[in-house]
């Protein structure tokens, strides 16, 4: 709790420009992380199987971003630039809500229950996407933060966790340079 | 899972009690309507439930401009389109739905078409596609369970595309919910018990799920108390109008609670079982509720405390005071179990999945997997994976 409230105070102290920059950075990171886990993790790949071909997903802050958007292509996620209505959209009602969730002060399930988000699209797709986001966070985040970000702390063995996370961070970094 | 923030919304006017139907013409006129369309199903007509409403309108110098009574148990976009066509042909100006879930959802769909124009519901599917109020819409429920009279959602099957279209919008909330004791008095014992258990489950899940909040808690506790007190009375004397009315009120209170704080694992599993095995929704709820509560109580301390608090509305002040704090969650679950067992003895409501005769043991893994895709799961107080869902189903098996 103390760690979380310190982060809360830190993020809370950012001015509008800095908050926007922080959220944009974390959004871009999440988009790349999803692309990366979609090709490295079997569990995530199995979940993506359940989306129809051409499925696209957008996470954004209302009304006009920051945002990221992905498309399913050949069983993986790839970045998507289309401007049509996405198959599934998860939208933060306010920049500040996004900042709280992306700094892991408020976990995603709580943000959902707290009406911070609008989910537009098929409910089953939303639940599947939530499982992918949970899985991605459980691989990527240090244990202590994951426990706060998720309803249940991940059950990955610690050594395996570190290796998987390291591989992923390498992929995300490569993705960042490829842009 | 602290509730640092919550929202609560229910703009539905509730017309409840003796001669509630006689208030309908006045309330319709107040909203500028003089030619309402009645939407219902053949069963409601056969049960003689329309006569008091039609008489109430006639005595109030009003008549239905059209009557659409062809709503099947599983409605579809075709039914909605036919309903909207009739409304337009007869120049109606409001919709009064009399019936259960299917009639109410059909009416919500038809109201979208007649208010927004067009023949297709598809552009309005999803969340937030509607941006302005629709035509005046009243609901007169004839079962005491679903709470659809106070919910902002509708699900309508599109048979051409083989999909179910979901609609959620505050504009789908009825202008009024009419609770008249005459409307539920003929409900047979099995349906009375099953729908009451649905209402009880709405209240209990609303009170224990992640989005529970101070306002929805008040509605949930009131609903639990009414079901616990009045369901046994109605089962013993089905003609007791006062007790019937209390059950109808309980269903509406529970509906307000869960439409603001959502449900949880009971509904996630129940929707899967309903879709695959066609077990009656309410029967499924009553059956699963104790097993899910045990699972959730075990997994989350705050949830366990909340379940313990429900001992007060379930068994009353004396039992609550006599029971030590730590024993209350177990006592509350035992009370729900006892109610379930009494209903089994009285009207054959199943106590286990095996007893339904419709669920195969080999189907449990499929059901567990299906439940993971249910939105209600997002609000369950304890994280549920495939293994958890399967374990609860296994325990509920026999
Ligand atoms: Fe229900």
Summary tags:
heterodimer; A: alpha+beta; B: 398 residues; alpha/beta; Rossmann fold; Dehydroquinate synthase-like, alpha domain; 2 domains; three-stranded mixed sheet; globular
Descriptive report:
- The complex is a heterodimer of chains A (179) and B (398).
- Chain A is α+β, with helices and mostly antiparallel strands and 179 residues long.
- Chain A has one domain: SCP2 sterol-binding domain (Nonspecific Lipid-transfer Protein, Chain A, 2-Layer Sandwich), CATH 3.30.1050.
- Chain A is built from eight helices and five strands.
- Chain A has a five-stranded mixed sheet.
- In chain A, strand 2 and strand 3 form a beta hairpin.
- In chain A, helix 2 crosses helix 3 and helix 2 crosses helix 8.
- The longest helix of chain A has 25 residues.
- Chain A is globular and about 45 Å long.
- The N and C termini of chain A lie far apart (37 Å).
- Chain B starts with 12 loop residues before the first strand and ends with a helix.
- Helix content of chain B is 53%, strand content 10%.
- The radius of gyration of chain B is 21 Å and the shape is globular.
- In chain B, the strands form two sheets. A six-stranded parallel sheet of chain B has the order 1-9-6-4-2-3, sandwiched between helices. In chain B, strands 5-8-7 form a three-stranded mixed sheet.
- Chain B has two domains: 171 residues, Rossmann fold (3-Layer(aba) Sandwich), CATH 3.40.50; 209 residues, Dehydroquinate synthase-like, alpha domain (Up-down Bundle).
- Chain B is α/β, with parallel strands linked by helices and 398 residues long.
- In chain B, 54% of the residues are buried.
- The interface between A and B is medium-sized, with 23 and 23 residues.
């Amino acid at each position: 709790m103390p760690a979380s409230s310190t982060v809360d105070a830190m993020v809370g102290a950012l001015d509008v420009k800095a908050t926007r920059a922080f959220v944009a950075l974390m959004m871009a990171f999440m988009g790349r992380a999803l692309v990366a886990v979609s090709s490295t993790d079997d569990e995530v790949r199995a979940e993506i199987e359940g989306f129809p071909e051409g499925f696209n997903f957008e996470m954004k802050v209302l009304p006009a971003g920051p945002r990221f958007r992905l498309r399913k292509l050949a069983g993986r996620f790839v970045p998507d630039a289309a401007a049509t209505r996405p198959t599934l959209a998860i939208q933060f009602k306010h920049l500040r809500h996004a900042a709280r969730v992306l700094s892991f002060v408020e976990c995603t399930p709580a943000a959902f229950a707290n009406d911070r988000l609008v989910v537009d699209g098929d409910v089953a797709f939303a639940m599947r996407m939530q499982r992918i986001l949970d899985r991605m966070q459980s691989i990527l985040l240090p244990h202590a933060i994951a426990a706060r970000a998720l309803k249940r702390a991940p059950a990955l063995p610690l050594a395996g966790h570190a290796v998987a996370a390291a591989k992923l961070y390498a992929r995300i970094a490569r993705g960042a340079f490829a842009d | 899972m602290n509730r640092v923030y919550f929202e609560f919304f229910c703009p539905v006017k509730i017309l409840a009690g003796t001669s509630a139907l006689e208030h309908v013409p006045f309330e319709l006129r107040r909203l500028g309507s003089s030619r309402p369309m009645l939407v219902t199903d053949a069963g409601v007509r056969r049960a003689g439930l329309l006569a008091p409403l039609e008489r109430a309108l006639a005595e109030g110098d009003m008549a239905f401009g059209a009557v659409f009574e062809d709503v099947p148990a599983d409605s579809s976009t075709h039914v909605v389109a036919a309903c909207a066509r009739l409304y337009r042909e007869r120049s109606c100006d409001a919709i009064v739905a009399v019936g259960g879930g299917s009639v109410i959802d059909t009416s919500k769909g038809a109201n979208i078409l007649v208010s927004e124009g067009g023949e297709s519901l598809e552009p309005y599917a999803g969340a937030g596609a509607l941006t302005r109020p629709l035509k005046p819409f009243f609901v007169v429920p004839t079962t005491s369970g679903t709470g659809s009279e106070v919910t902002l959602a509708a699900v309508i099957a599109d048979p051409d595309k083989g999909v179910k279209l979901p609609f959620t919008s505050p504009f789908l909330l009825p202008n009024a919910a009419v609770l008249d004791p005459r409307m539920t008095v003929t409900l047979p014992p099995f349906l009375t018990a099953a729908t009451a258990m649905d209402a009880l489950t709405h209240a209990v899940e609303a009170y224990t799920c992640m989005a529970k909040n101070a306002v929805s808690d008040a509605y949930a506790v009131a609903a639990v108390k009414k079901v616990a007190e009045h369901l046994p009375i109605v089962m013993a004397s089905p003609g007791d109008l006062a007790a019937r009315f209390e059950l109808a009120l309980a269903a509406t209170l529970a509906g307000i609670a869960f439409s603001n704080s959502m449900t949880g694992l009971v509904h996630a599993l129940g929707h899967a079982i309903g879709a695959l095995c066609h077990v009656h929704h309410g029967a499924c709820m009553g059956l699963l509720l104790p097993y899910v509560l045990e699972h959730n109580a075990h997994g989350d301390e705050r949830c366990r405390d909340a379940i313990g608090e429900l001992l007060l509305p379930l068994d009353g002040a004396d039992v609550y005071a006599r029971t030590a704090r730590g024993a209350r969650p177990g006592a509350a679950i035992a009370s729900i179990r006892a109610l379930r067992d009494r209903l089994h003895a009285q009207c054959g409501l199943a106590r286990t999945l095996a007893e339904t005769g419709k669920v195969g043991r080999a189907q449990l893994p499929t059901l567990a997997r299906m439940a993971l895709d249910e939105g209600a799961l997002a609000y369950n107080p304890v994280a549920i994976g495939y293994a958890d869902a399967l374990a609860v189903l296994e325990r509920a098996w026999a």
